[in-house]
Structure formats: C-alpha cells, structure tokens
Design a protein that fits this description.
The chain is mainly α. The chain is 90% helix and 0% strand. α1 (6-39) crosses α2 (41-78).
C-alpha cells in the first residue's frame, strides 16, 4: 500500500468539509432552525468524516468516473 500524499489528504479534507456544510444545510432545510441548526452538525460531521476518509483514497477513481460520465453525455449530445 502506498503512502497517502499531501494532495490526497487535501482533497479528502476539502470533500469532507463540503459534505459537512451541505449536510448541515440540508438538516436546517428539512428540520427547521432549532433542530437543523442545533443538532444538524452531528449527522453532518459523521457524513463529512466518512466522505473525507473515503475521498482520501478514492478521489482518482471518482475523477475518472466523472470524466467518463462527461464523455458519455457528450457522445449522447452529438449523436454518436
């Protein structure tokens, strides 16, 4: 198993922070200000940690799948 580089850690941290913020906003939207803002950080933190940890190791695969999806959409758009 190879070492985790600083780039891997940075991408994982960025993905985790984004997932945390999005989950917290989702909780505020669904459960209102009191429960969403007050307690939404808990599921947001759990999701952010899981996404950050996974993306530290899997971001290359995710980027490849995103590129493949873009190519498939482009091919469908131009009629190949």
């Amino acid at each position: 198993m190879s070492e985790v580089s600083e780039v891997d850690q940075g991408i994982g941290a960025l993905a985790g922070i984004i997932a945390f913020i999005v989950a917290w906003i989702y909780c505020m939207y669904c459960y209102g200000f009191l429960f969403g803002f007050g307690l939404g950080w808990l599921p947001g933190g759990i999701l952010g940690f899981m996404v950050g940890f996974a993306m530290t190791f899997l971001w290359r695969w995710a980027l490849g799948l995103l590129a493949l999806a873009c190519l498939l959409v482009l091919a469908a758009t131009i009629g190949l």
